[in-house]
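User: Just a sanity check before I run the rest of the batch. Below are the structure tokens for the first item. I only need the designed sequence back.
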């Protein structure tokens, strides 16, 4: 986690191999992680039939969540689960 925080705040750059692994895990092209692009571009990169994709704002949100203490992380998780349940009921 310490290395990821440094990457997110621009204190370090991941190796190309780690960048490829992160891109695969996030479901985005490695080039998008390296060079960026318009919002939503990564989400549409491999078509509609692919698994859920993260946008850069989602990655930043995850980093923010990790900066919370455990009590507040649990509250955030419960809130997100509640929103997902409400959304699925529509």
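Assistant: Here's the designed sequence for the first item:
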């Amino acid at each position: 986690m310490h290395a990821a925080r440094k990457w997110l705040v621009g204190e370090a750059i991941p190796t190309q191999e780690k960048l490829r692994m992160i891109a695969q895990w996030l479901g985005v092209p490695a080039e998008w992680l390296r060079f960026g692009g318009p919002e939503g571009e990564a989400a549409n990169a491999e078509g509609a039939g692919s698994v859920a994709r993260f946008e850069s704002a989602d990655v930043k949100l995850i980093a923010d969540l990790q900066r919370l203490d455990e009590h507040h992380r649990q509250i955030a998780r419960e809130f997100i689960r509640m929103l997902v349940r409400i959304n699925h009921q529509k």
